[in-house]
């Protein structure tokens, strides 16, 4: 019994023994403190760091471990309240969880940043009363931050009022090689104003052959021109309005007025293993100005202008043997 007590006592002493750190203080020209931080015997930063504004208000507070700042950083306003302004949680892969606050202390927005300080994923935004105001989905396309979808909500709840978005689903994420996945896409809100929506068409673009070439995560290998003449080969699935028998691909009947803004199809895998179905939904507006004939092409008697909004999606799947 005494040996067990002695062993526990020594263990506590060893755990409680910490390396002595040196406190470092720097100053502004006016004599006010600028930074307070700590270093170990190898001059590597360890522990808490506090920075101050020239006004002596706290600027930010962070924490170092072995010279790395992989903890939460708190940034403050340089005013009388000295309230919290921004909060960042840093991760080893370079990404950041970010929160921004109104002057009254309530959350303003939150979401994730990548290592290049670009927004990705879903960002939620709140008004000064704390109500969820709108959500934006960001994707990194060709290494550029891209606003993919947006939903605006009413103060009384999550009722969608306007924005640019789609609803879509795949009926399963695990399947056998001989099976298929049902995919359904429909616009919640068109990218274009109401008076132009009758001139729009919708479709879904996918790689033609998943066994050879997929869309990469940032879609940089997609076709860049409107005629899809560059990039990897693709297929374009048109809306149900263009389908000769829409009921053949619909799992559940819908009102025929929705056919124009709905795309549905079956996706059949061609290989075993984990994969990601990537593609994009196209909302395309075509305008024809017949008052301005084009002289260069005898068969073309009007000017055609088109505008396209792309909403990118991806869906993870796992295919097993029969």
Automatic annotation (TrEMBL):
Gene3D superfamilies: 3.90.930.1. It comes from the Bacteria. This is MORN repeat variant. It comes from Aquimarina muelleri.
């Amino acid at each position: 019994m005494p040996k067990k007590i002695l062993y526990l006592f020594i263990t506590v002493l060893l755990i409680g023994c910490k390396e002595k750190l040196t406190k470092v203080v720097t100053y502004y020209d006016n004599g006010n403190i600028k930074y307070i931080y700590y270093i170990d015997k190898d001059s590597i930063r360890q522990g808490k760091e506090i920075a101050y504004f020239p006004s002596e208000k706290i600027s930010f507070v962070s924490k170092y471990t072995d010279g790395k700042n992989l903890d939460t950083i708190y940034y403050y306003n340089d005013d009388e309240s000295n309230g919290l302004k921004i909060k960042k949680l840093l991760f080893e892969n370079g990404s950041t969880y970010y929160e921004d606050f109104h002057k009254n202390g309530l959350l303003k927005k939150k979401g994730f940043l990548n290592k290049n300080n670009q927004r990705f994923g879903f960002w939620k935004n709140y008004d000064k009363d704390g109500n969820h105001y709108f959500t934006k989905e960001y994707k990194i396309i060709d290494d550029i931050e891209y606003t993919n979808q947006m939903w605006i909500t009413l103060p009384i709840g999550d009722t969608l009022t306007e924005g640019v978005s789609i609803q879509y689903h795949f009926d399963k994420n695990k399947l056998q090689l001989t099976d298929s996945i049902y995919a359904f896409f429909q616009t919640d809100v068109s990218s274009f104003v109401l008076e132009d929506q009758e001139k729009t068409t919708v479709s879904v673009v996918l790689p033609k052959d998943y066994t050879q070439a997929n869309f990469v995560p940032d879609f940089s290998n997609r076709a860049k021109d409107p005629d899809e003449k560059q990039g990897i080969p693709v297929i374009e699935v048109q809306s149900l309005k263009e389908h000769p028998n829409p009921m053949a691909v619909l799992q559940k009947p819908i009102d025929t007025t929705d056919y124009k803004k709905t795309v549905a199809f079956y996706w059949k895998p061609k290989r075993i293993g984990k994969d990601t179905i990537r593609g994009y939904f196209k909302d395309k507006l075509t305008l024809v100005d017949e008052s301005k004939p084009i002289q260069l092409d005898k068969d073309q008697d009007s000017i055609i202008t088109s505008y396209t909004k792309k909403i990118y999606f991806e869906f993870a799947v796992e295919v097993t043997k029969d």
